[in-house]
């Protein structure tokens, strides 16, 4: 099978490999759709940790083609999506209800072979059945939607709140829909105006250039770009008493300048948001029911053999979701 294996910084290699066999408790899926994520780009640049050599791709869905010993929850031909994050269930954090902060966290597509391949072995416990009628491409969005649901928990939006989302990429547009569902009135800040129409179609009250955002104006600010200027701006545009969520994945080592006195004077609550604790099955329902619309977020589709071009399009910043699709 063809697989895109991350070997070392700057080296993602297309390799012909044997199709892996599912072990006890595992299933083999034929990958049908896999989303390209900012995290993949960060890993390749050496800006985010991983365990190479490893097949990247952690947002994916496919068809079950083989069942490992002892698996009773799935059968061949089932359509599934994958929760890539695997917890140890034995460390301090797992024992205290914060499984996503697990000290021994590993993830498919980061530390264990993932979805940028024709086939992928997945522990049965990490797979979720796709509701009938939803496409594999939509199924590949369950993981990012699950992460955005965690972001929403951290944001604590109340109905009527003025919410700013900094970044109108696929993550920003998922957060937009969830913030609207929570009753927020959402302003999306996005420098590329070509992305504004979709943001409006998906419920944005206003779309603005970053420099047009008013200061001291928002009850909730969600940074969804992972860039220095937006992190810094998230503090200045927050109203007194606001909550600020730094959702976007900033490159490791990046620094931002904020004025602690402003955080003190406004009594801001600043929260991070990390992966998807107990949000996956809700994400399946939201995507499956169409309550969160994900198909319009796909701007480009590539076959796996064109993964390098797909990554280049992703990194241009002009695309929305870039999806690797197989037939
Ligand atoms: Zn991702
Ligand atoms: Zn743990």
Q: What is the residue-mean pLDDT, rounded to a whole number?
A: 97
Name of the CATH first level of the largest domain: Alpha Beta
Distance between the termini: 14 Å
Q: Please, how many helices?
A: 10
Describe the oligomeric state of these chains in a short phrase. single chain
How much helix is in the residues?
Answer: 25-40%
Total domain units = 2
CA-based shape: globular
Task: Tally the beta strands.
Answer: 18
Major sheet size, sense and barrel closure = 7 strands, mixed
State the CATH topology of the largest domain: Quinone Oxidoreductase, Chain A, domain 1
* Bound small molecules, deduplicated: zinc ion
- Computed over alpha carbons, the radius of gyration is 19 Å
Strand content: 25-35%
CATH architecture of the largest domain: Alpha-Beta Complex
Helix-and-strand structural type: alpha/beta
Q: Which segments are poorly predicted (pLDDT under 50) over 5 or more consecutive residues?
A: none
